[in-house]
Amino acid sequence: xxxxxxxxxxxxxxxxxxxxxxxxxxxxxxxxxxxxxxxxxxxxxxxxxxxxxxxxxxxxxxxxxxxxxxxxxxxxxxxxxxxxxxxxxxxxxxxxxxxxxxxxxxxxxxxxxxxxxxxxxxxxxxxxxxxxxxxxxxxxxxxxxxxxxxxxxxxxxxxxxxxxxxxxxxxxxxxxxxxxxxxxxxxxxxxxxxxxxxxxxxxxxxxxxxxxxxxxxxxxxxxxxxxxxxxxxxxxxxxxxxxxxxxxxxxxxxxxxxxxxxxxxxxxxxxxxxxxxxxx
Length: 280
Prior knowledge:
Elements: E1 2-17, E2 21-35, H1 46-60, E3 65-68, E4 74-79, E5 82-88, E6 94-99, E7 104-107, H2 114-124, E8 133-141, E9 149-154, E10 168-178, E11 181-182, H3 184-193, E12 197-201, E13 205-208, E14 212-219, E15 222-229, E16 233-236, H4 242-256, E17 262-267, E18 273-278
Parallel strand pairs: 1-3, 3-7, 9-12, 12-16
Antiparallel strand pairs: 1-2, 2-8, 4-5, 5-6, 6-15, 9-10, 10-11, 10-17, 13-14, 14-15, 17-18
């Protein structure tokens, strides 16, 4: 018997890629279970499936930096204070991140893909369901978006929850209207500007070495640092909440288009975000 749960949940995270660097991502999770019927005539209660998988994915993947521990580009150091990783890009540049262990997901694969992460999750989840379940299948897919979108990573040190982790992110669509009319051209320009970007807050910038930027801050979960090539980052004079990102984009666009009303609908992953307007 085959039991399935489509669009079980979505996870927002970032991961390390050999050419793209730190990539903000959002995946939808689909699950299926094979097994025999129990005394209730079920393979497994849907409530148990949803609660168990959602909780595990929220705890182990969501708002973390996924690290492919079998990748030759990685140098990983563990200490009592947490983890330090150094990631060498194909360009020869290096990205370094430190933080408490809970800010990372150490995935035993060579590269992060929906397929490799799904296989790893299934291995980690072995034995978590009742004995009536013979096999768990898990799949990750991206939201179908037929308009411009971008991948961004960030950290929110003032956040009480897991958004305080310095390298987590989202795959997000954007809508830009000028005087009430949608502008696909401006949407495309902004999506290209923020393709695989790290959005840093200026007050967290500890050192600007020209080609490398070093960010650091203290948050409730611990101490965080990030060193990243400057050309993979945009520095903002505000925190990088989606509300402030929407306003930042609206203000930037209004300055470039004086006399016009700009309205930005910025998403943070799937189905949530903020709207901001500006005019100069």
